[in-house]
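Cross-posted from the bioinformatics board.
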Amino acid sequence: MRPNNRLENELRDITIETGFIKHPEGSVLITVGDTKVICNASIEERVPPFMRNQGKGWITAEYQMLPRATEQRNIREAAKGKLSGRTMEIQRLIGRALRAVVDLEKLGERTIWVDCDVIQADGGTRTASITGAFVAMVLALGKLVDNKVLETLPITDYLAAISVGVMPDSSTILDLEYVEDSQAAVDMNVVMTGNGEFVEIQGTGEEATFSHKELLSMLNLAEEGITNLFEYQKQAIGDYAQLIDQMEEVE
Amino acid sequence: MRPNNRLENELRDITIETGFIKHPEGSVLITVGDTKVICNASIEERVPPFMRNQGKGWITAEYQMLPRATEQRNIREAAKGKLSGRTMEIQRLIGRALRAVVDLEKLGERTIWVDCDVIQADGGTRTASITGAFVAMVLALGKLVDNKVLETLPITDYLAAISVGVMPDSSTILDLEYVEDSQAAVDMNVVMTGNGEFVEIQGTGEEATFSHKELLSMLNLAEEGITNLFEYQKQAIGDYAQLIDQMEEVE
Amino acid sequence: MRPNNRLENELRDITIETGFIKHPEGSVLITVGDTKVICNASIEERVPPFMRNQGKGWITAEYQMLPRATEQRNIREAAKGKLSGRTMEIQRLIGRALRAVVDLEKLGERTIWVDCDVIQADGGTRTASITGAFVAMVLALGKLVDNKVLETLPITDYLAAISVGVMPDSSTILDLEYVEDSQAAVDMNVVMTGNGEFVEIQGTGEEATFSHKELLSMLNLAEEGITNLFEYQKQAIGDYAQLIDQMEEVE
Amino acid sequence: MRPNNRLENELRDITIETGFIKHPEGSVLITVGDTKVICNASIEERVPPFMRNQGKGWITAEYQMLPRATEQRNIREAAKGKLSGRTMEIQRLIGRALRAVVDLEKLGERTIWVDCDVIQADGGTRTASITGAFVAMVLALGKLVDNKVLETLPITDYLAAISVGVMPDSSTILDLEYVEDSQAAVDMNVVMTGNGEFVEIQGTGEEATFSHKELLSMLNLAEEGITNLFEYQKQAIGDYAQLIDQMEEVE
Amino acid sequence: MRPNNRLENELRDITIETGFIKHPEGSVLITVGDTKVICNASIEERVPPFMRNQGKGWITAEYQMLPRATEQRNIREAAKGKLSGRTMEIQRLIGRALRAVVDLEKLGERTIWVDCDVIQADGGTRTASITGAFVAMVLALGKLVDNKVLETLPITDYLAAISVGVMPDSSTILDLEYVEDSQAAVDMNVVMTGNGEFVEIQGTGEEATFSHKELLSMLNLAEEGITNLFEYQKQAIGDYAQLIDQMEEVE
Amino acid sequence: MRPNNRLENELRDITIETGFIKHPEGSVLITVGDTKVICNASIEERVPPFMRNQGKGWITAEYQMLPRATEQRNIREAAKGKLSGRTMEIQRLIGRALRAVVDLEKLGERTIWVDCDVIQADGGTRTASITGAFVAMVLALGKLVDNKVLETLPITDYLAAISVGVMPDSSTILDLEYVEDSQAAVDMNVVMTGNGEFVEIQGTGEEATFSHKELLSMLNLAEEGITNLFEYQKQAIGDYAQLIDQMEEVE
């Protein structure tokens, strides 16, 4: 039996609170069980040097955990003076995933900065970050549409992510919380779009391996879970959902 | 007339939410108007090298702002690879202030780490951090008393802080919010204890100077404001207030 | 038609030259087409602090490219003073993959350092690094067996990796060289063991997405390619192949 | 009785030697008892990026101690690769204080760099730095007036600083030397202008607190001491003193 | 008797393999006994900021050793986040030496980057780097002549380097390998041009000193050795040798 | 004619002021013309990790210039967060040179830290540093003898250094000041011991070369100059000169 008595294909309780912080163009507090991430999207009216004069925009993400987001206090990366490999991996993943559903030409020469700050961690922080970041980004871009800066929302589809895993007893489960994650033999993060395509699959045996069959089982769970996540996102973005639907039809 | 129609000696709305994050021994969300700071206190069962074998404890503080806590997004210090001078100044101030009301011998050879993470900034983040950090620290130490690790709360008095300033029209005001702070000719942060003594006074003319009379006027406002803050702290710490009262009698 | 007239499921020419550098316990130059990586394995008779006193060993990998391994000269990471996110990701991947086929208890309290230095890059440097690093590691551990330091080779299976991808024309191909990699819509790295299990799957849409069917097609190609790589590894490790076979029977 | 048999309101011996180093536009060796600081002022004909195109100048200060300025050798900050919080605090203080008496518009788009290098430390290095830096800055700006680059000295008033403190026996004293500073219960640095206004007050209880009455007593001592310092400054700057007097009349 | 039975004035076996890596404009693997260095020369069509608008070019060198180029594994400088003093000294030496035989005006506003990566070390890595770097640089510049970018080779003479030393038995020897270098009382690196002039002499007593007579004896050995090195260089650069001869006549 | 009307073999005015800073065990201000260096020697009662348990001591040197020691202000290395290659080269040179005349066994397991801080630069700062550092070191070690910590001065000989050079008119000159140094075709630093042996020779053509004959001419000038420097050192160290003479007889 799983902690919280969850079924193998059952997500934790999820809430997406919008307008969480007042300054950012888009701000969200996403809660997935006891994992809580503040996702703030900021618009900057220029692109980084390597993207200049291409008539295209850019999306970049940063990820961080509060030192005491975890059971043991972690040393602050700002105090250490450098980002860990884990942090770099995660923020590269978030940015790459978001870019898969944004039409960068339509965005124009501006940058969306997405900051994912984990204030409480209980497993699945990177997938919660992606799911929340998508909403924050839509809210920020929606504001540009509301203000007539952009004609349409340059979003081509929904985007959400979830973790799946194989436990030592060979069961495959959805949305691992920390105690499950620390025991899992295999851990996989899956990012998908609204039309059911994959954006990213990262499956890792933790001093273990996994079979083709286990892979397929995990993918099925992930697809099911992500389909649910889209519903939470739709509610959070409100009227902007219609703009995404229009955009999808065009594409 | 001040923003929010406040009187010169009027604090903003204040809330201190305890148990905000689940992992830390003491966790508080302090809200002072639109300034919001998460204060987490962690207990570590050892002291830094320079304090070893002295039979005493230590208290150290870290301070950080989310990149989009402010109107303009700030570059993350972890990404820059070093702390700014401002951050260092503030975290040194917080730690020093807290140590003024802790009996380090009674604390024993352990370290209290206090993390002050500003998630939304609207002026007075360092004083809100001190006021909230005191509560988080009491909650963490109170847990040690509850668990019989400590016999008594090694806290000698209450501790809170507020900002005061002189405006270009020569008025002196209490608890500056950001739009006031950016216009003020003089900015002063005052840290006081429950018995009305000063722990720290930092008054700075911003390309301006201030007279002896203005100084006294600011100190009066600060004393009045801080006295109010103690009431919020007492409510937040609940039964532990009695332990502080006992401790004060002993001293 | 692919560059070099390769079929979709065809590997590039592969050589694994052993004893390439004289000092390391295991040293290999692996050549995959025009990609050339020096893989050196060093044995250190202690483990990092977080692994001490557990009776287990550790494996850590480092990855670097010569500045002119690529068409454009890259700034040296040592000159920049920090590792890029890409480098960190890759060296974490290599270390994690190798640990999946080593019995860390049997290794004992020692560390294997595997250095993968790309001297010429033409796509697939991370998968070539894993494939070559496995051989270097076997040679280094084999020397410990030869010298009676270890009784048996603490290797539980073969390990190799290859890249697969989806091209803009929707074809799926094996072992992408640089010109293919830079055009691919989807890029996936697969790490497998000799018994046909997955250790790691990392599939990424490059501002694109991929379907379930494309995923399966890529996995098939990868499995076919990796099966061939094992043959090159067996030849390179010579007599040590028997020790691996014995070990696998035991497990 | 104080070390050196000083009265509570008595400064140490003070000398301000001008023209100490030949290259800087203004150079001073200030000696306050056994504390010796080289203060060099350099003029740069441009401003930092954040000040450009505002028709105003800027003043920035740097502070450092030789490793063996102190009884125990300190590790060089250049060797550690970062500035300590203490150094940052001090150099921010010096620059802020100097800016309070410079008319940045009259200075024009140029930067004054003030380097304060402590070659021997015996307490009060930050206040000696401010007092000496003011003289070095006047000398450098005076040279611009002599060379007809500036029409008038853009200095609005004198500026000097001193430390005061409360000792464990509750006495308040002026100009603490190291042995006093290390025992003091309260340490306060005061920066004032020639017209008797405060620029900065930084009072800190060292694991202690201080009363309103002690504060006033310290401020009185500081005011008395700083008034004396202005005489040393006047002598050091020679004829430029008249230019400051003229400027003050205008303001 | 020396290791390898060499005479005191005898070089180790030397090979210079050209075209070693495919991307760089000039690429060489130089082997001096068991010391192996990859020297890659890259042409960049601009100069660093401090050289701009002077109508001249620039040459800069970087030097690095693979972690396991040596008997003991060295920590990677990229992992440490900074270059060692030794590395900086060597790369400054290589760049300075190369600039002595290049006509920077004739080179025009472009930079030659020379990367010397030691893949196997057995003494004399810095002198092998200079000797190999010269060849790589000639090949890169020769390509510019072949492509009519430059009219003539902007090389004024040959350049090579060797180490000499004094052993504990007072013998002076040429081209020290590692076991000799670690015992030598004096170690000297000599860089010379084809016309027999010195470019650089760096002689160091290793907790020892050397006499005028020993100095002259070492210089004679060095001159003899370097004269031999020029023959290997001539063979490696092939037809470009004629262009150097022409250039020398002109000068 | 040279600046200051000096002859080719003429040193600048030299003074060595002892006891310059009060805290260090040995402290010297050496003045060579307008070059001024504070040399402080500190004794630490332990050795760095790589020297432990060998019954021997260690000597390490650090070198720095004040930002405005030069005509143009240099950015502080502590502010940049890293030492330049030039600084590293120089401090390695100073330490190595000093170690050549110290009997590390007799020194015992302690470290001598020598800090050379250039407060005013006019050419020859590294050689002035060595010459001054020797005196500071003797004073510090002499204090250990005075205090009976050491039985004898563990110094085997005098040590001094000077620069020589070849000018564009082919003249060779001694002790270059800055205007000469910036024009010189060849610059050489020579470190010698009291018995006329070389410790270090570093000769560099600055985009130029030098002949065997020019080398010998420079060495003669250097020997003459250094012989004079020993007289200044003897005066500075006073009675300790006898201890060095005794030590030399023993050796």
